[in-house]
Amino acid sequence: MPIYEYRCMSCQHFFSLLVFGREEIRCPECGGDRVEKQFSSFGVGGSSPSGAGPSCGSSGGL
């Protein structure tokens, strides 16, 4: 189940939510149902097999 980021169009609150199927999304701050899905980046965890080298999010010596 994916985690999506939303913005409430009523109170402008930003929030993340784990979505199950087609459930109705409501703002946890005001309870409003006028929410807009936001574009978001995602992180990837892990490291290289040898444990050396740059990982996602590091400058890698640049």
Please describe what this structure looks like.
This protein has 62 residues and is mainly beta. It has a domain at 3-37. Helix content is 0%, strand content 23%. It is built from no helices and 3 strands. The protein has strands at residues 3-8, 14-18, 35-37. The radius of gyration is 17 Å and the shape is globular. The mean pLDDT is 79.
Report strand order across the widest sheet. Answer: 2-1-3
Query: pLDDT below 50 for ≥5 consecutive residues: which ranges?
Result: none
Order of helices and strands: EEE
Largest sheet: 3 strands, antiparallel
Rough shape? globular
Number of strands: 3
Content of β-strand:
15-25%
Helices and strands in order:
Layout: E1 3-8, E2 14-18, E3 35-37
Antiparallel strand pairs: 1-2, 1-3
